[in-house]
Amino acid sequence: MPTAPADTDHTPLPFHLTPLDREILSQTDEEFIYHDWDNLKDIIATNSLHLLKRKPSDLLNYIAWSTDIKSIYGTITNYICLERLQWPLHIDPVTQCANPTPFVDPRDYKILRNDWPYGVTPDITHIVVWMKNQIPVDEQNGGDVTPESRRLIDEFVHRTFVKRLTGEFADAKERVMWFKNWTALQSVRSLEHVHVLVRGVPDEIIVEWTGEPARKLSDPTVGIKKTMVPAPRP
Questions:
Q1: Domain extents for the chain?
Q2: Who's near 45: CB < 8 A, 6+ residues apart?
Q3: More exposed terminus of the chain, fewer Cβ within 10 Å: N or C?
Q4: Whole-number Cα distances in Å, 75 to 66, 82, 230
Q5: Distance from C-alpha of 39 to C-alpha of 88, rounded to nearest angstrom
Q6: DSSP percent split of the chain into helix, strand, coil, nearest 5
Q7: How does DSSP assign 148-192, residue by residue?
Q8: Which secondary structure element, helix H or strand E, spans residue 64, and what is its range?
Q9: 84-121, pLDDT tens digit by residue?
Q10: What is the pTM of this model?
């Protein structure tokens, strides 16, 4: 059974563990109830994103992985920029945008598999769209997206994911959902990103979108390359 890191441990946790996280870590993987498609639809429709959770063993590995990544790269953002996105460090991504409007220029975003997906059923694939542009949010509403931002994301998801599936499935629109965590729920706040969930999509199409095959997250050090992180410019 996974064990929640003790509050008295001298090694600081890489991120805050919520009461739900600690509840999950008290379970075994066999006891864990996976998010199925209908459950995810309810969570997204009601904006109850705080209820999304990882499988106990994945959460424990994610904690260990995040600790290792921070010891090597300094921050999770450094790792993602260097190893996953190949974007320069110490330069605000917004200043590197080819187009100021989100999702217009493919050079301003990158579609990848989520390294640490939530605990979803095997028919669901969790994708992340990483962006150089900032998506406007309503800080008075907990950092939720604005109506205009929601429209932009909807249009991008439809033309990128739904349209690709239209020739494969009669219910293509019902196989794709997206969400953007409120600011308070984001584990990587300095890089803009949107989550996309797809159901029953062949892996060759996932590879077409992301350019990368599936990976089994059985090792908490997966993905660590120990790249030398350059010092910030004075």
A1: 19-210
A2: none
A3: C
A4: 9, 11, 13
A5: 38
A6: 40, 15, 45
A7: HHHHHHHHHHIIIIIHHHHTT-TTGGGGEEEE---GGG-SSTTSE
A8: helix 56-73
A9: 999 988 788 888 899 999 999 999 999 999 999 999 99
A10: 0.86
